[in-house]
Design a protein that fits this description.
By secondary structure, the protein is α/β, with parallel strands linked by helices. It has one domain: TIM Barrel. It has 10 helices and 9 strands. The protein has helices at 14-27, 42-52, 70-80, 99-112, 125-134, 145-161, 181-193, 197-205, 220-231, 248-257; strands at 5-9, 31-35, 57-64, 87-92, 117-122, 137-141, 168-177, 213-215, 236-241. The protein has an 8-stranded parallel β-barrel, surrounded by 8 helices. Helix 6 links the parallel strand 6 (137-141) and strand 7. Helix 3 (70-80) packs across helix 4. The chain is globular, with a radius of gyration of 17 Å.
């Protein structure tokens, strides 16, 4: 039984999304997560991948509550027509740092989309604690295994305060494989550091080094070994690819290199509170 593993991509057109979904499902990944940005509709990409596959779950990481109202977001979900049991829909504060925005946004989405699994993105400790109390899953981004362990404890605290089990912890791990891997990972970190203080603060709090996995050889065994500490701290690792180019071939190269190893060992058991069901 392999660790619970997902692959993460940016928004694509429907044809590429379908092909990626089929390949990711065939490789043994459990889920496909799609970034939602002003440059591309991640939900439509997820819908195309779900329609092309039979059992691959999909996730959106994440819709910004600072940029759209819960009613607008709910309408997007309805239009996508993804079966609720296959979708984990993620929201975040976006350009705002307001906990209230997320609290009220999730509450309204629950009334508008009954039965839909909702995830909350958490970079810092306050949002992690809040997400533990209100979300079905928590998406942690740009975190080393040690920080993921800290966030997991805060999520458990938030859940306990609300008298509920801790939600699933989903860890986005940037993964670059092949020539120039370290350069791509460093460039992605620099891009995020300029996008908001919450990212730059998170980078500084973790020592300022590289966060993620960069394997110049693209060797599957090396990638599996590098990802193992992340599996030890979360329920689902999202291998968020950093391909050499924005082509279908380049994305698939990362997906194949980091694919689940059949017959491999399960990840080490976590210590402390459970991170919830899958």
């Amino acid at each position: 039984m392999h660790p619970h593993l997902a692959f993460g991509i940016t928004a694509r057109d429907a044809a590429e999304a379908a092909l990626l979904g089929l390949e990711v499902e065939a490789l043994g990944y459990d889920e496909l997560w799609v970034n939602d940005t002003p440059r591309g509709d991640g939900l439509q990409t997820a819908a195309a991948a779900a329609a092309a596959t039979t059992h691959l779950d999909v996730g959106l990481g994440v819709a910004a509550l600072s940029g759209a109202s819960p009613a607008e977001i709910a309408e997007r979900v309805r239009r996508a027509e993804i079966p609720a049991q296959r979708l984990t829909f993620g929201v975040g504060s976006g350009s705002s740092s307001s906990l209230e925005l997320v609290t009220t946004g999730v509450a309204e989405l629950r009334s508008l989309l009954p039965g839909q699994r909702l995830a909350v993105a958490a970079v810092g400790p306050r949002m992690a604690r809040l997400a533990g109390g209100i979300a079905d899953a928590v998406v942690a981004n740009w975190a080393l295994p040690e920080r993921l362990a800290e966030l997991r404890e805060l999520i458990a605290e938030g859940a306990a305060a609300e008298g509920r089990p801790p939600p699933r912890l989903v860890g986005y791990v940037r993964v670059a494989a092949g020539a120039g891997a370290e350069r791509r990972l460093r460039a992605e970190m620099e891009r995020y550091a300029g996008a908001g203080q919450h990212y730059s603060r998170a980078f500084e709090a973790q020592g300022g080094g590289l966060i993620g996995v960069a394997i110049e050889s693209a060797d599957p065994e090396e990638l599996a070994e590098a990802l193992a500490p992340y599996h030890a701290e979360v329920d689902t690792v999202v291998v968020r690819g950093l391909p050499a180019g924005d082509t279908l071939k380049a994305w698939l190269e990362v997906a194949r290199a980091a694919a689940p190893v059949s017959g491999g060992e399960s990840p080490p058991e976590r210590q402390g509170p459970s991170a919830g069901s899958r």
